Amino acid sequence: MRAEARHQLKEDRFSKVTFQAAERTVHWSAEHKAKLVAGVIALVVIAAIALGGWYYINAQDEKASAQLTTAVRTFEAQVRPPGVPPQPGQDSFASSQERATAARQQFQDIVDKYPRTRTADMARYFVGLASSQLGDNAAAERSLREAAKASNSDLASLGKLSLASVYGSEGKDADAIDLYKKLIDRPTIAVSKATAQLELAGFYESRKKSDDAKKLYQDVVKENPSSEASSIAQRRMGASK
């Protein structure tokens, strides 16, 4: 098989896994009516980044990409209901904590083995997400800071968005607000202006700053009529009355 054909097959396989992972996460979120985490967007962006530079990456990055696919599968694996034993041939975990622990180790292995690759930049982002899920804010902050400095603007914006959330959970309100505002001023494909506005508005609501939140929601509605972001903003304004 020609080298180009082999690359294409690997590219298609990698893309398929990441998109399927995103679809599973979206389905889970819809069922539980929970807010989508930034990682959902990241799974899609990963495929785009890999596709764009596939023919120029070195052998190490190719190996790292394969490991990233495995780690993403772990990160999105099923959590079994209490008392349900694991099924042969099916990856699953007894708890979300157990799953995040396993995934974090896999992502960290990529960072340790292939530190200078673009895939390692993506892995650092996921280490941050997994650490946040585990309540390890110090580790999450370290990894997300690195991701926020990535040369790829989409990945960097995702790192900043997740880092702002970690700052908020640590009570570093000024740092969180500063990052949200920077994302609003410099949107990317991965993190649009409306996304950053909604996140900052939600943050303001959590701090009982309803007037600041309302102003942002009104901006979203005005700037994005007939959009999903507008619907979310209007729904939140209605709920806060």
The biggest sheet, with number of strands, parallel, antiparallel or mixed sense and barrel status, is: 2 strands, parallel
Helical run tally: 11
Mean pLDDT: 81
CATH topology of the largest domain: Serine Threonine Protein Phosphatase 5, Tetratricopeptide repeat
Structural class: mainly alpha
Calculate Rg over CA atoms.
19 Å
Question: What report would you give on this structure?
Answer:
Helices cover 75% and strands 2% of the residues. By secondary structure, it is mostly helical. It has two domains: 3-84 and 93-183, Serine Threonine Protein Phosphatase 5, Tetratricopeptide repeat, CATH 1.25.40; 192-241, no CATH class. A two-stranded parallel sheet has the order 1-2. The termini are far apart. Residues 1-38 have low confidence and may be disordered.
Briefly say what this structure is:
This protein is mainly α and 241 residues long.
Topology of helices and strands:
Layout: H1 3-32, H2 38-53, H3 59-75, E1 78-79, E2 92-93, H4 96-113, H5 118-133, H6 137-148, H7 153-169, H8 173-185, H9 193-206, H10 210-223, H11 228-240
Parallel strand pairs: 1-2
Helix pairs in contact: 1-2, 1-3, 2-7, 3-4, 3-5, 4-5, 5-6, 5-7, 6-7, 7-8, 8-9, 9-10, 10-11
